[in-house]
Amino acid sequence: MKKLKPILFNIIRGYATSVFNFLIALYGIKTYGKENWGEIVALLLWVFFVVFFSNWGNQEYLLRKYSRNPSNIFELYTKNLFSRSSLLIFSFLIFLFFPFHIALLAWGLIVLMFFYNSLNSLIIYHQKFGEQLFAECAGAFMILYTIFSFPFDISTLLTTYCIAFTFKLIYLTIDLKLWRNKCTFNFSFQEFTNANSFFLIGFMGWLVSKTDLYIVSYFFTKTTLSSYQLFSTSFLMLQALSALMLLPYNKHFYRLNQVTIDAIQRKIAIISIPIALIGTVAIWLLLSFLVGINFPIYYYLFGFFTVIPHYLTAIDYLKLKRENQEKRIAALNIIGFLSTLLTSLLLINTLGLEGLLYSMMFTQWLLFLLLKYSHR
Predict the structure, then answer these.
(1) Residue whose C-alpha is closest to residue 203's, from 15, 40, 59
(2) Contact criterion met (CB below 8 Å) for 106 and 160
(3) pLDDT tens digits, 305-332
(4) Quick one: average pLDDT of 23-46?
(5) Are the beta carbons of 233 and 29 closer than 8 angstroms?
(6) Which of 26, 221, 244, 261 is deepest in the core (most CB within 10 A)?
(7) Alpha-carbon gap, residue 358 to 369, rounded angstroms
(8) Residue 249 predicted with pLDDT over 70
(9) pLDDT confidence bin for 57, thresholds 50/70/90
């Protein structure tokens, strides 16, 4: 039971952020309306982009470094953190696109999210999953309370986001007892070059999953953006189940024989369609009847067929990692990003939002074929 507890908390922790983002978007739309919520989504898209870029693949990179040098964890952490903090210079670009008081709050949120996300490697290494889950719950409660209690105002919402991340950062810093360790302010360019492969894999994967939102933000109204954000987040949560189901096996995957791996892959393939089908119906019922998002029914079929390849290829990506084929994963993610971007731009002017959904579905099945072909 003691061994299962951290696994269970890690699965819940990994899914909690998506669930909370979904609930915040859900009640944001219901309380403030699609047009108003679309404004905050358009701003947060750029905040999240800068934060993700400044992370520079630190989590996976540092976890590998910790495992090789467990006696020097905090020095490795602070060296990487101090080096990556130089990337925050790009956060000042936000002042070029938004009014000063809005940009200042958004900049503060970027900095807070940067330091909070930087704790992830320490949280995973020390298995502080329950503590982070509590912090995420508290932060989500603060934002939801603001939505329910105050009229729509971007400054108020951004202030609440800043307060929530400040609380989460302080709480986990105390829990990890970081003040007991001596900080090392040592800039090293190698922290970027050594983590390049992790950054490229994560960044291109992130672009594949987020490109559609940026395209909707550019081509469509704020009302459409807010509705599509909820639609997209719903199917990303359904997609994430494919990776979460494999978490209990990840630690032992490198030692499993091929027969066992093939058996796991067959089981996932068998249950993928029922899971995706039940999830799609649940998303349709929730968005249509609770939120009042009246997308055509075939939009949800697009979502269903976009999710299926993730279940069919989840094991294949682990196989590539086991074989140290990170460059191949990065190449597939680059192809996915370019496919989504180019096909979306080709189809969106004639088919509108439907063209974007065609593009997302096409890209996922293209990656499925390329991954199966490349792994023969």
Answers:
(1) 59
(2) no
(3) 999 998 888 788 777 777 767 778 778 8
(4) 89
(5) no
(6) 26
(7) 17
(8) no
(9) confident
The answer to whether 54 and 90 have CB atoms below 8 angstroms apart is: yes
Question: What is the number of helices (H) and of strands (E) in the chain?
Answer: 16, 0
Predicted TM-score (pTM) of the model is 0.80
**Phi-psi category of residue 324: left, alpha or beta, with phi > 0 → left and psi -120 to 50 → alpha:** left
Q: What angle do CA 281, 241, 336 make, to 5 degrees?
A: 95
Stated as kind and residue range, the H or E segment containing 61 is helix 58-68
Q: Two tokens at 30?
A: 């219901």
Residue 160: per-residue pLDDT: 96
pLDDT at 312: 86
Closest CA to 195 of 69, 81, 319, 335: 81
Kindly state the average pLDDT of the residues 263-279: 85
279: amino acid identity, one letter = G
Enumerate the H helices of 177-257 as residue ranges. 190-193, 196-219, 222-244, 247-250
Mean pLDDT lowest for which of 34-43, 51-60, 281-290?
A: 51-60
Look up residue 326 and give its amino acid. E
DSSP state of 69: -
Name the nearest CA neighbour of 247 among 124, 78, 111, 370. Answer: 124
Question: CA-to-CA distance for 52 and 123, rounded, in angstroms?
Answer: 18
Handedness of CA 96, 25, 289, 298 (dihedral sign): positive
The residue among 53, 308, 336 whose CA lies nearest residue 199 is: 53
